[in-house]
Automatic annotation (TrEMBL):
One of its GO terms (cellular component) is plasma membrane. Keywords: Cell membrane, Membrane, Protein transport, Translocation, Transmembrane, Transmembrane helix, Transport. One of its GO terms (biological process) is protein transport. The chain crosses the membrane at residues 26-47. This is Preprotein translocase subunit YajC. It comes from Fervidobacterium pennivorans. It is a single-pass membrane protein. The keyword Kinase does not apply.
Length: 121
């Protein structure tokens, strides 16, 4: 079975003048397509990921005692103590847990807490 590529000349083919065509045009097209592909990947994947990482680092650096957080596992608690990489939180029934800072999903703001309390009543 022979594969046919549109626009790509055969290796042994000659033009009407008897000279062989150059492959530099096809190489330039391929190079341009690769550059466009990598530019799209950069803007669609890499930049948004960097933005999320920057926001996460800012959230972790702004943690303070008394903040209410939600972990990636869904545990809600108030921060009691902050160490280098570990945060101690107080959860329901005065249970204290130590979690790694990387597992904090969200810091709940005071406005959100009061809104949730009024909705539950």
């Amino acid at each position: 079975m022979r594969l046919v590529f549109a626009g790509a000349p055969d290796v042994g083919a000659t033009t009407s003048t008897g000279t062989q065509p150059s492959a530099s045009g096809a190489m330039m097209q391929m190079l341009i397509m690769l550059l466009i592909f990598f530019a799209m990947m950069y803007f669609l994947v890499i930049l948004p990921q960097r933005r999320r990482e920057k926001e996460f680092r800012q959230m972790i650096e702004s943690l303070k005692k008394g903040d209410t957080i939600i972990t990636t596992g869904g545990v809600v608690g108030k921060i009691v103590d902050i160490k280098k990489d570990v945060v101690k939180i107080k959860s329901a029934n005065s249970t204290e847990l130590e979690i790694h800072k990387a597992y904090i999903a969200k810091v709940i703001k005071e406005k959100e807490e009061t809104k949730e309390e009024t909705e539950s009543k």
